[in-house]
Structures are given as structure tokens and as C-alpha cells.
């Protein structure tokens, strides 16, 4: 499963720039809709287009690998279902 690291990137950019950056600002500057960003952050398995990834990479000045993380399905299950 792919996991988007938008919150982490936003927190890092906020720290580096020493200011609070909101989702609204990210939407306004990048041109990505709030609905799309919310789904990327909150909805597991959400699929977005390459244009959205391109906009995120341009905004954060990073590569696709910084925006996305591959998480093994068995790792997800181990996190969600504690061992007996």
C-alpha cells in the first residue's frame, strides 16, 4: 500500500520556515483541492493522479519518493492487530 507523507512534509516545511503552514495555504499555492488533500491524508489506499504528485513535489521542492512511502500489507496488519 502507498502512504502519502503530506503531513510530515508540511510539518518539516513549517519548521524550516519557522511559521505555521495550513492545508488552506498548501491548497491555494499548489492548486490542489482541499478535498483531494484530505483524502490523501485520511483515506487509506486513496489513489491520486501524477499531476497532484507533481504539484506536491514542486511545492515541497522534493522528489516523489519524499511524498510517497510503500508500506507492506503485513506490516499494516501487525500494527493494527496486536499479537496474541
Automatic annotation (TrEMBL):
InterPro entries: Cro/C1-type_HTH, Lambda_DNA-bd_dom_sf. It holds the Pfam family HTH_26. Residues 17-67 form the HTH cro/C1-type domain. It comes from the Bacteria. PROSITE patterns: HTH_CROC1. SUPFAM superfamilies: lambda repressor-like DNA-binding domains. This is HTH cro/C1-type domain-containing protein. It comes from Alishewanella longhuensis.
